Amino acid sequence: MKIILTGSTGFAGTEILNQCIAHNYIEHVYVLTRRPLDAKYSHKKVTQILHEDFETYPDDLLNRLRDEGVEACIWALGGKTKDLKSLDNSRKVNVNFVAAAAEAFAKHLAPGLKPYPGYPGTEPKPGVGRFPFRFIYVSAWGAEHNQFRKLWIGDDDRKLKGAAERAIFSAADDSEEKDGHKCFEAIALRPRGILAGSSEAIGTIVMQAIIPSVTSGQLARTAIRTAFDRAKDRKRILENRDLLGEDWAMVNSLN
User: Which of 146, 186, 203, 239 has the greatest count of CB atoms below 10 A from its CB?
Assistant: First the structure.
């Protein structure tokens, strides 16, 4: 699989990039970034694309990604309003950037893919391209779609995440069909909190039993797994418990 990754210099994005490089079935990662990555990411599987304006996607960039056969995007770019100087800037980063990318990829990249033989009942054979294009968005717990609802905790951030989710789901609903199947899917991941460290460490397991959260490794694994294959129940939103995967058994044993 070939994927696009954003937010690769952030806490979650760095782990996603590391796991993408180590993944046997990820052929290439196209990192959209405003500034060059650390030299350690000069890897044959990584192409850095310096991209200054995340609200626009020129035809030459989209044509390049489409011709390369990119099949998914993991969007880990974002931040809290308190860290982004103003609500307007936070809206630009957390909503406008996401919406612009989803719309551009749905219209220009996704139609380049087509259902493989046996879709959707079987996995594609090795070397056969995947379908549909999947846009995996790292959202946050409590994302609120109703922009008029009064929230007592995290009002601005939760509504901005909710607005971004609505935008990517709208792009999916409006996407082109191939053989009766939408060629673009969007899935939102909603971690309550993101922890450093091993998911197997007893301290992490205890913390997750007290406060719903995931490790950066668990989040990265889920993002990559979902890019390959959307959950059988066709969920568009994966809550914190969904992100734990098999690790949920260890956390739940302490409850």
Answer: 186
- d(CA 229, CA 249) in angstroms, rounded, equals 22
Structure tokens belonging to residue 200: 């197997």
Which among 26, 31, 35 is positioned nearest to 6, based on CA atoms? 31
The domain of 89 spans 2-196+215-241
Cα Dmax for the chain: 53
Distance CA 55, CA 97 (A): 5
Pick the closest to residue 194 from 221, 226, 159 (CA basis).
221
**Across the strands, what pairs with 47?**
30
Q: What is the CATH number of the domain that holds 42?
A: 3.40.50.720
Q: What angle do CA 23, 73, 234 make, to 5 degrees?
A: 90
Which residues, 6+ apart, have CB-to-CB distance to 190 below 8 Å? 139, 140, 141, 142, 143, 237, 238, 239, 240, 243
Name the domain count of the chain. 1
Give the pLDDT confidence of 66-125 residue by residue, as tens digits.
999 999 999 999 999 999 989 999 999 999 999 999 999 999 999 999 999 888 888 888
| CA geometry: angle 131, 181, 236, nearest 5 deg | 75
Structure tokens at 139: 């959202």
For the chain, how many helices (H) and strands (E)?
9, 11
